[in-house]
Design brief:
Layout: E1 4-7, E2 30-31, E3 34-40, E4 57-64, E5 70-74, E6 98-99, E7 104-105, E8 110-114, H1 131-144, E9 152-156, H2 158-169, E10 177-180, H3 188-206, H4 210-225, H5 228-234, H6 248-260, H7 266-278, E11 290-295, H8 303-312, E12 316-322, H9 330-333, H10 335-346
Parallel strand pairs: 1-12, 5-8, 5-9, 6-7, 9-10, 10-11, 11-12
Antiparallel strand pairs: 2-3, 3-4, 4-8
Helix pairs in contact: 1-2, 3-4, 3-7, 4-6
């Protein structure tokens, strides 16, 4: 495979899509040409920890043209099976990339996305789950749908970790990977930030204030998703009238935390946050052709980790890195930049 490396400038400045997950009310529900796929988890399925996953099903959703080549799309830990805004009344988390005539064109491809386990509705206490476990659960959905090969697996952030784990476990199931803002391991600095979030959340749970814990953990998480440069551009440093008052940036973070407090449960947050930090694959074992996209301002997934991954992959197809004002959130906000790379990666797929 030919290896290329490019550096491109930042582009679009769109706001984050919503990442809510709609409850399931039927085994298969049609809407706007998309349908849910609910697959029973076998009774003998065990996580890497040896424990049983305490939920009956894994839930996916097929978007796009029936019978077209299948593209798997996976996002961050708050993302799920709703990727396209139009057919989900605004719930799609990556409509900047997945749409009719978009970079991942729903008139040319079928897009499969799944809700990561564990589902909050089945979870009383945190569960130890790995990116390899998520890959195996995705495999259950693909087997159920009798999909022997997917044309591409596009993974961003945690979804990129799952894509790498999937390719290591199943080298022949995907024709190519496009991995955005993810590497072969969790960086210790990112683990440190997430560890503090988990301790804040656990402290709040022990105090009987779980929703406040989710909100505070989210506030801290927001400071790691973005850059100092963006915060400097957006917020003044005007001090409040007295001690204890809110500075402008604190008002923003409080609002983001409040908006998220009922989005998930503490047990699911703890499970998914820990799963990020358990992620580990051996790049030399991944033989699927890979396109890598990284951002030089990303503090959660430092560009040096993605450069190391690129150097160690035996079938690297393309590695593109770029600056961005948005840090780790650039994969959600740099639509034009990421879209151009996706179109290039998809140009040889026969629809």
């Amino acid at each position: 495979m030919r290896k290329t490396m490019m550096t491109l400038a930042e582009t679009s400045l769109l706001e984050d899509p919503d990442c809510r997950v709609e409850p399931i009310d039927a085994p298969v529900r049609e809407r706007g040409g998309a349908r849910d796929v609910i697959v029973a988890i076998p009774a003998d399925f065990r996580l890497a920890s040896g424990k049983k996953l305490n939920q009956p099903n894994i839930v996916g959703r097929l978007h796009g043209r029936a019978g077209a080549p299948v593209v798997v799309v996976a996002g961050g830990i708050s993302a799920g099976r709703f990727v396209h805004r139009t057919e989900t009344n605004g719930l799609g988390w990556w409509s900047g990339a997945v749409s009719v005539r978009g970079p991942i064109d729903l008139s040319r491809y079928q897009v499969l996305a799944v809700d990561f386990a564990p589902g909050a509705e089945f979870l009383d206490t945190p569960v130890t789950i790995t990116t390899q476990d998520q890959a195996r659960l995705l495999g259950l959905v693909l087997n159920h749908l009798k999909i022997e090969r997917v044309s591409a697996f596009v993974g961003c952030s945690y979804g990129g970790m799952v894509a790498l784990a999937f390719a290591e476990l199943y080298p022949d199931w995907a024709e190519q990977l496009i991995v955005v803002s993810a590497a072969h391991r969790a960086h210790p600095q990112a683990t440190a930030w997430r560890g503090i979030q988990r301790r804040i959340l656990q402290f709040a749970v022990d105090a009987g204030r779980p929703e406040e814990g989710v909100a505070l953990a989210r506030e801290l998480a927001m400071t790691t998703y973005r850059t100092a440069e963006e915060f400097n551009d957006r917020f003044e440093t005007t001090a409040p009238d007295s001690v204890g008052g809110a500075y402008p940036i604190c008002e923003y973070l409080t609002a983001r935390g409040e908006a998220y407090r009922t989005h998930t449960t503490p047990a699911r947050w703890l499970s998914m946050s820990d799963s990020l930090d358990r992620h580990s694959v051996t790049p030399e074992n991944i033989t699927t052709p890979v396109t890598l996209i990284g951002f030089t301002s990303d503090r959660l997934v430092p560009i040096d980790d993605i450069r190391e991954l690129a150097a160690r992959l035996p079938t690297l197809w393309r590695f593109v890195e770029a600056p961005s004002l948005f840090g780790h959130d650039a994969f959600l906000k740099e639509d034009a930049f990421v879209g151009d790379i996706l179109r290039t990666a998809f140009k040889d797929i026969k629809a």
